[in-house]
């Protein structure tokens, strides 16, 4: 299997601080995961689950309102260590590429692993599709995921800020960007008429 044949599209949602009255030492923890596993350009599997935060288990009102998520749903979620075991299974010990929109997902995952003293579960390459999109279209600012989809004249999948929906939206946007890249890398071959000025030839033989 080639290194780009196995693609993992990941999206996490995190806990958010309330404001000035944050717990001492607060840091974002993963509370929802969305995974889209793609092998040989076909979706192999999808996964979605809430994750119970460990260090700061009580969600802020801001977090619940922004993500439209309830404390009860998160409390019923899987354990963080179960998430790590799951990511190891998706990693499968084979070369793969993890694709996210933005770099925050991997930063928070690494930080959460460090805080829980567990090894980082992913061994493949990492691609930040938002930076690729920015460079490809020459944007000066980083574009939001759903805005980028709308710029293609498309709509995001499901609801924004739901982990699996965002992971699927990232996958769909990835396909659009890759198609455009291929189009630019393989321009239509020029014809002989494109290479020579036929008007000059006609004038030459007309005289």
UniProtKB/TrEMBL annotation:
Pfam families: RNase_T
Single GO molecular function: exonuclease activity
Keywords linked to the UniProt accession: Exonuclease, Hydrolase, Nuclease
Keyword Hydrolase appears in the UniProt entry: yes
Organism: Metabacillus fastidiosus
The protein, known as: 3'-5' exonuclease KapD
InterPro entries in the record: 3-5_Exoribonuclease (IPR051274), ERI-1_3'hExo-like (IPR047201), Ribonucl_H (IPR013520), RNaseH-like_sf (IPR012337), RNaseH_sf (IPR036397)
Domain annotation Exonuclease: ranges: 6-183
